[in-house]
Design goal:
Chain A is mainly alpha-helical. Helices cover 80% and strands 0% of the residues of chain A. In chain A, α1 packs across α5 and α5 packs antiparallel against α6. The longest helix of chain A is centred in the N-terminal third of the chain and has 25 residues. Chain A is globular. Chain B is mostly helical. Chain B has two domains: 80 residues; 52 residues. In chain B, α4 packs antiparallel against α6 and α5 packs across α6. The longest helix of chain B is centred in the N-terminal third of the chain and has 33 residues. Classes of the chains: A mainly alpha, B mainly alpha. Chains A and B meet through α1, α2, α5 and α6 of A and α1, α3, α4, α5 and α6 of B.
Amino acid sequence: MTLFIAIVVLSGTAGDLAVSHAMKQIGEIETLRPSVIWRVLPQAFRIVWMWIGLALMALAFFSLLTLLSWADVSIVVPATALSYVTAAIGAKYLLHEKVAPLRWAGVFLVCAGVALLSLS
Amino acid sequence: MNSEPKKRRRTYLLLATMVLFSSIGNVLLSKGMKQVGQVVDFSPIALLGVFLKTFMNSSVWLGIFSLLLFFVSYMLVLSWADLSYVQPASAIGYAMVAVLGYLLLGESVSPVRWIGVLFICGGVALVGGTDPTTTRSNPPCE
């Protein structure tokens, strides 16, 4: 079960990192006009990182479904809250985001909060 | 040129859209799958039936559509904002669902879950106090 939780958390995180990386390559979308969005979205799907991200997210999703079919929800769902921490670590070291101390504190609080909330 | 307050506003707008559509999407999918019913028979024929029932359910389709809108908002906001900002900030949705469930549906919320709600709100407030963009992305498209 620990292995499956690790797959869910790590492939989900890797998927988010890949999608984020792909969108940074597109560059900042400065207006939310539908005409612009329609033009930009197809561009995003021409970036290979986008597809890698989607594949990893799909892997995380189906691993979670598989896990939920036999493992205890009250352990699995709180454990997946770890994704907030792994995403921040990945964002710092792979995407070179500056995670300020205040943001680290926020990430840990959110992680603990989501875990507590999903305990029923 | 793009001014900072405008960018903040766009960030908040897309975060709100993400939270809204992911909550609606999950509720609709859950409603749809409960209408489809529990899967008890795993023979290929029975699974085919479940599959067809799932894809003929309007709640399931509306749920998928909502989640697509969520994902589009997520992609758009990530074109400028940090992943380490967007992800924790969007967790406010979990707290809101719990509070709305309590206020509108009269669902009971245990003390442990209330503490979770408080932690999430505090965490989101801390993350929200940081600069959403700390990396240089490619030049703006357009």
